[in-house]
Each structure stands twice: as structure tokens, then as C-alpha cells.
Amino acid sequence: MKIGFIGLGNMGGPMAINLVKAGHEVNGFDTAEVSLDGINMADSVAGAVKDAEVVITMLPNGAILRAVADQILPNMARDATLIDCSTVDVESARAVDVQASGADLLFVDAPVSGGIGGASAGTLTFMAGGSDAAFAVAEPLFEIMGQKAVHCGAAGAGQAAKICNNMILGATMIATCEAFALADKLGLDRDKMFDVVSTSSGYSWTMNAYCPAPGVGPQSPADNDYQPGFASELMLKDLGLSQQAASSADADTPMGQLALELYKRFVEDEDGLGKDFSAMLPRFEKRGRE
Ligand code: NAD
Fold first, then answer.
1. How many helices (H) and strands (E) does the chain have?
2. Atom of ligand 1 nearest to the CA of 67
């Protein structure tokens, strides 16, 4: 397949390389200077998408996605498919879908989970929104770049699934970290705490698979001085998107709102920038009640 790939950063770069390794022709474009093995870099967005059967975008946010969509949609071949893998607001995904169908193009919003490691290893999970026809075009490419793809519903449903999942993740990580900090102050051994909670009703992915306490449970960023992993500022971005969506849908999400406020403070005022989102544990350790 001839594929245009826009946004070849930490995630997009390795995803595009996996497509090349699987035998596809990839023409890339990025506003930054990028050079990647096997990818032909175009001088312009239009050059990268011309004649492509599929165009994939992996961009920082919804405003940039909308700006890029304005540039690429008029230059794409008729009946081609645009797959946006960025994490963006639901409204931007739906707006680009409307714009794409107006230009006789198919569109899938397909944000991912699995991070930079998953992008390199080709083990991402894709959460996709769009028509059956659009998903059918995208699915074989998801199989190359990932290990699982769920067709969640119409356009925007992929972004909705992603931000709901990450709202649970952010709130659960905070709950896990504050419980460890409380256990410390109660004199409870961290290994005993893990043994009990990971096999009791408090178990969760953040406790069992990504334990925020160094040396406890399976290997995680906590064992590597909280190098990300999943950086706190990316969690902050996703919590912001979930509150934006909650506000436009009139949904009451107090835990998500509080998680947003705590990660905002952590990233902006408390040295959390650049640290894994599980570094909330040392933050709680240092504090008493306010
Ligand atoms: P990144 O900043 O490394 O990459 C984004 C790339 O887009 C950059 O190379 C940038 O130069 C390029 N870009 C920006 N504006 C552009 C434009 N107008 N035209 C062309 N290229 C442009 O970010 P990333 O970590 O690769 O993340 C990309 C997306 O994936 C984000 O939406 C992020 O939320 C999401 N995501 C990231 C992770 C992660 O662990 N990094 C995990 C899941 C999802």
C-alpha cells in the first residue's frame, strides 16, 4: 500500500517504520527535521499524501490535527482513507470526519495505548471510531502496528474510549499512590500491602501491573527512578480532554476533575514534569494532610 504519514515523532516514527518493515511504501512529512530508515520524506504535506491510499496522522493535539486536515484533505486521492492515531478531543475527531466525508474520503479516529515501547514493538492497542468500511481499510494496518484493535463505534468513539480509560487510569493511580503513602505512615510493609491488595478487592492495573512503589510487584517505571513510561504531562493532557468532553456532554465526573487538578499541580508546580505518572507516590510520601 502507498501510505502518507504525517507527524513522525516519538510515536509516529516507530509506527511508520513498522509499516515499512511490513512492505508498505511510506511517504512522510513532519514540520521538524526527521530522517527515518526506509521512509521517503516529502517537502510538503501535500507531497506526502498525493496518490496515497491511506494517510495516517500522529500529531500533538486537536488544533494541529484540524490545521493538518485542512491541508491534506483537498490533496488526497478520492476514496482514500484518513486514519488519525493522535489523542485529541472528541469534537475535533468528529469535525474532521464530517470534513472527510464531504470530500468523499473515509475517516477513522484511532488513538492508541501502549506508549513508545508499544509503538516500537508493534504492540499498540487501537481504539477506533468510524464506519465499517473505514475500519475495514484500517484494520490490516492496525495489525502491523499493534496487537489489538477495537471498533468502538462511529467517528469520535475511539477518542471517547481512550479518554474514559485514561480518566479511570489517572484516578486509580492517585488512589493507589495515596494508599501506599498511608500504609507507610501506618507502619505497613509495602510488600505485604502489595500481597494483600493485588489479590483483594483493591486490585487494579496500577497496583498489579504498574506498581508505583519501587522494588514491589513487577518491573515498572518506579524501578527506574520514575523515568517514563507514561509521562505525567501526557496524563494531564488526557485528563484535560476527558473534562472537556464531560463538560460538553454535561457529565458529572468529580473524580476525573480532582485527578486533573492534582496532575496539573504535580506537573506545573511540584516537579512532576518529565516524570512517569506513577511518581505521584513520592509526592504523597513527602506530604502531610493539608
Ligand atoms: P511528538 O511530539 O513526539 O510527535 C508529534 C510530531 O508531530 C512531532 O514530530 C512534530 O514535529 C509533528 N508535528 C507537529 N505539528 C505538525 C504539523 N503541523 N505538520 C506535521 N507534523 C507536525 O508526540 P508523540 O509522543 O509522538 O505523541 C503523538 C500523539 O500520540 C499525541 O496526540 C499523544 O497524546 C499520543 N500518545 C502518545 C503516547 C506516548 O507515550 N508518547 C502514548 C499514547 C498516545
1. 12, 9
2. 18
